[in-house]
């Protein structure tokens, strides 16, 4: 059978996975996973730390200070 995925796609996928794993390790080192997130800001901080990946080790310390989720309310 012919493999549909090109070698470049495999490399890019592997790099993205490694990037996110490094970000997750940075979150672990900052003890973000010790307790459950209590609000949107702590969940956002964990998410942006993971997405920042290796940039965490170059001095980036992403934080979400305040966030508001606008969810439609049910009609009364």
What is the fold's blueprint, element by element?
Layout: H1 7-29, H2 40-52
What does this molecule look like?
There is one protein chain. The chain has 76 residues and is an all-alpha fold. Helix content is 47%, strand content 0%. It has helices at residues 7-29, 40-52. Helix 1 packs across helix 2 (40-52). The longest helix has 23 residues, at 7-29. The N and C termini lie far apart (58 Å). 11% of the residues are buried.
Order of helices and strands: HH
The strand count comes to 0
Largest beta sheet, briefly? none
Helix/sheet category: mainly alpha
Helix content: 40-55%
Low-confidence stretches: none
How far is the first residue's CA from the last residue's CA? 58 Å
Number of helices: 2
Rough outline? flat
Describe the structure concisely for a colleague.
The chain is an all-alpha fold. It contains two helices and no strands.
Task: For this entry, give a set of tags.
mainly alpha; 76 residues
């Amino acid at each position: 059978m012919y493999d549909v995925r090109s070698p470049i796609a495999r490399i890019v996928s592997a790099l993205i996975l490694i990037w996110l794993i490094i970000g997750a390790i940075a979150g672990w080192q900052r003890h973000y996973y010790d307790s459950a997130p209590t609000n949107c800001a702590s969940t956002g901080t964990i998410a942006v730390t993971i997405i920042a990946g290796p940039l965490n080790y170059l001095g980036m310390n992403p934080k979400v200070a305040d966030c508001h989720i606008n969810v439609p309310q049910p009609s009364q």
